[in-house]
User: What shape does this take?
Amino acid sequence: MSRGLATLALLLGCAHTHATLPISVTLERLVAEADHILVGSITGAFATDESGALLWGPAARTGPCLTNTIYLEVEVSETLVTNAPQVPRTLNIPLDRWMHYSLGQVLLVHRERSSPRLLLLQGTNFEPSVPGAFQWSLEDREFVLWLREQQAAERRSSEASRGQLAVGVHQPLADNCDSRGLGSPNVEATVTAVTKRSRLVDELLGQPPSRQILLRLERKVPP
Assistant: This one.
């Protein structure tokens, strides 16, 4: 194969492997994965190559098989949620490297300071949890904070249910089983089966998993 054909095959293979359509992501996911919910404005953009060297030329591009990254410069005006000791006043947030962008295009879009918007970011480097997806309308501020609290409440409820499950498995055995019952295959199989189905039991029967396990174990423990 000639060098030209080999190069073309490589480019086509790379383009086929990495899709360059914008990623669709729900607000629920962005909120759930965010460590930081901030308010900020985009003030500019720049690009770097794979070594981190700055690229100021408008022709600098990103896309499949390219190693450049385009960043948005953001000025943070308010912190709504964070787990960081301190939030920087300015952030450099990367766009999706696999998208076909040029620095010139991005600078044209952001030639003026943007209006304030919500920024949903993750980690100590304040980066998007999903490449390129981190901005949301400031009009949804109260809804985003409400959604965040709902998700936190669901996690607390789930953790509490798991704690009840642990009590429900071990306490009935200690109270109701003799030495024969503790080693019974029937008891062990029941604990395993009910544990795997605890969420379904909780949802369908409307009682805490620990109580359902208690009732089932009492029926299975040998006399």
In short: Helices lie at 3-17, 27-33, 103-109, 141-176, 179-182, 185-196, 198-205, 209-220. Strands lie at 36-48, 54-55, 61-62, 69-81, 90-94, 101-102, 117-121, 135-136. Confidence is low (pLDDT under 50) at residues 1-20, 169-223.
